[in-house]
Write a structure and sequence with these properties.
Strands 2-1-5-4-3 form a five-stranded antiparallel β-sheet. Strands 7-6-10-9-8 form a five-stranded antiparallel β-sheet, sandwiched between helices. The relative contact order is 0.05. It is of the alpha+beta class and about 650 residues long.
Length: about 650
């Protein structure tokens, strides 16, 4: 607890400090940004987040305010507060006990205390602010309306010269009618709007003057006219957006109010106030267009951020190519040569050799580094979703397309698109991919609009694409389009001299990420690692190091046991497959496997009562993407 976050109180009032903090209706919290923890809350803050105080104190700040894409915004807001002494933001988002997302208006103050930096946050739910403002505006409008109409009634009843002069100076159009609908008064502004002089309107049927037809030319019957209706039933009528006609045949949009004037329980006429809203409608149209454009840009940025967050969470969270072997030096030289160009690059190599790391290095060394590097794992995309993932789709293009979505090519515009496992792309989609590479144009699924992009392609594969071309499983023209500048990522067994550098690099990384003690491995340990052939390459090395550091006791570790486990596990699995007699092996046909899959999918859907999405949905139960599950259900004709 910080004892003095409220200052300026004398000693006699000191006991009021905790009471004032605790019982104010404004939600207030004190937090420690460096330790990522909460220090204290008042009752209003606990009610806002629906937690008990002791529960909130156990949580980190980022667990409430830093969920996924919200973390960069939280960091920026904290830095602004610490730098400027205070900060304000009305787009701070948090999650309450039920997981509901709350938009907050937050005013933060930097509070240095005993050589430590704290912050005091004052929070208001934006929905509550908007509701209070709406109630205030409605009440104000109601009170103003009563005063205005009372004044108009008096002006109409007592139409002496002074009051007519007052009406003549009003900026809105005003006229009065008698019970027969004839004009008895019109101010100069109203006559000018209609393109007439006041004397041309007096005594005329006002409906025939300016309100006789709709915008499309359709007749507007007198008995449907809300202006006249006020004279008949004594009720106030409003026209939110109708049209009035000018004498020259043109028209303009208006909003108007027709108010009956009553004297001694008798309706003696009505007062009509109208306003030209042309400029307002034009402004609203421009604003709507601007908002739509902003929404499009916001949606694209959110999706880019979503992909970038996925990239941050990848296992290989390092940004340097580690090694000093001849093959690594050759790769670095090739990167320097090709990065400054826009040439397409094809990276060959086994799984786990760092192909993605090479792609990142090329992107970061290019002129496109200020724009995103978008990664697509072609092996992880269901065949029926390839086109949507690459080119995007519009709302309603297929089942599950609940909103417009930009594809990976559009997100990578002006940047780089890394196509991992390029050999997995279906043959029928390769022609569409070739078109984008050649012309730089594509269409979203379900849309006819042609879009243009400027994207640099870096592809990677562990297959022999030349053989794939010969076997007619990969288009030859696409192969030559991608294979402009090939780079080969060597297997770890071919550059074992880099193992000491890799061990040092991964040890520091694992120590920071997993919060385990750092180990300085001996030469004996390194030699053990170099005697192993590493079929899983660098990824396997990282896994072995991580297990070794976690299981080490008192700084003592042995790789021999871990490596033997890897070898024995592989050999045992192989031996087990070869030693079982064929007669004892239950072989399933393709039809058996299909029937088994259908039954399994049906069981999952029934178990979840037909629910597909969410934590309690069938997709989560099966461990697959919901859209993938829906596609399989449709393909296998399984009802859901």
């Amino acid at each position: 607890m910080i004892s003095d976050y409220i200052s300026g109180w004398d000693n006699s009032e000191a006991s009021l400090r905790p009471l004032a903090f605790e019982h104010t209706k404004q939600a207030i919290m004190v937090l420690d940004p460096k330790e990522n923890r909460f220090v204290d809350f008042n009752l209003a803050a606990c009610e806002l987040f629906r937690f008990e105080r002791h529960e909130l104190l156990k949580k980190s700040v980022t667990s409430i305010f830093g969920h996924f894409t919200l973390l960069p915004q939280l960091i920026a807001f904290t830095e602004e507060t610490l730098t400027k002494g205070q900060a304000w933001n009305n787009e701070v988002f948090a999650f309450d006990r039920d997981g509901e997302k709350i938009q907050l208006d937050v005013h933060a103050v930097h509070l240095p205390y005993q050589q430590h930096d704290y912050m005091i946050w004052s929070l208001v739910d934006v929905k509550d602010l908007e509701l209070r403002q709406l109630n205030k505006n409605a009440d104000k409008a109601f009170r103003a309306g009563l005063i205005e109409w009372q004044a108009l009634q008096e002006l109409f009843i007592d139409s002496d010269t002074g009051k007519h002069l007052l009406l003549s100076s009003v900026g809105d159009g005003i006229y009065s009618i008698n019970p027969q609908g004839l004009c008895t008064f019109i101010n100069p502004v109203g006559a000018k709007m209609l393109g007439l002089k006041p004397e041309d309107v007096l005594g005329k049927n006002i409906h025939q003057v300016h309100h006789h037809t709709h915008e499309n030319g359709q007749h507007y019957p007198v008995h449907e006219c809300p202006i006249y209706a006020a004279v008949h039933d004594g009720v106030i009528y409003e026209g939110i957006q109708e049209i009035f006609w000018r004498v020259d045949g043109s028209y303009f949009p208006v909003e108007f109010t027709s108010t009956p004037v009553i004297r001694e329980s008798e309706i003696i006429g009505a007062v009509v106030v109208f306003r030209d809203i042309s400029e307002r409608l034009n402004t609203e149209t421009k604003l709507t267009q601007a908002l739509n454009e902003l929404q499009h840009l916001k949606s694209r940025l959110e999706q880019q951020n979503e992909y970038l967050q996925e990239e941050i969470l990848q296992d290989n969270q390092y940004h340097e190519i580690v090694g000093n072997s001849g093959s690594i030096r050759e790769i670095i030289e090739k990167i320097k040569v090709v990065a400054v160009t826009d040439a397409n690059v094809m990276i060959y190599g086994e799984s786990g050799t760092g192909k993605e790391l090479i792609a990142r290095a090329i992107h970061q060394s290019s002129h496109r580094k200020q724009h995103p590097l978008i990664r697509v794992n072609c092996a992880a995309i269901p065949a029926e979703l390839f086109e949507s993932e690459f080119f995007g789709h519009v709302k309603g293009a297929f089942t599950g397309a609940i909103r417009d979505r930009a594809g990976r090519f559009e997100l990578a515009d002006q940047g780089t698109l890394f196509l991992d496992e390029i050999g997995e792309i279906p043959l029928e989609l390769q022609s569409k991919l070739l078109r984008v590479l050649q012309e730089g144009t594509f269409e979203r699924v379900g849309e006819e609009r042609t879009r243009k992009v400027d994207v640099r392609i870096i592809a990677a594969t562990n297959r022999n694409l030349k053989s794939e071309v010969q076997e007619k499983r990969f288009r030859e023209d696409l192969y030559f389009r991608l294979n402009v500048f090939p780079i080969f990522a060597p297997a770890l067994r071919e550059r074992k001299e880099d193992i000491p550098l890799l061990v040092r690099h991964f040890s520091k990384l694992i120590s920071e990420q997993r919060k385990v003690p750092y180990l300085a491995f001996s030469q004996k340990h390194i030699q053990e690692l170099q005697r192993y052939n590493w079929p899983g390459n660098i990824r396997e090395l990282q896994n072995v190091l991580e297990r070794a550091m976690i299981t080490a006791r008192h700084g003592v570790v042995s790789f021999q046991y871990l490596l033997e486990q890897e070898i024995q596990s592989t050999m045992s699995h192989s031996i087990a497959l070869h030693q079982v007699p064929i007669a004892q092996v239950n072989i399933l046909t393709v039809e058996d496997l299909k029937a088994l899959e259908i039954q399994n999918l049906k069981n999952a859907v029934q178990c979840c009562d037909g629910k597909i999405f969410g934590k309690d949905g069938a997709a989560h139960l099966l461990g697959i993407n919901p859209t993938t599950l829906i596609s399989r259900l449709k393909k296998l004709s399984i009802p859901y």
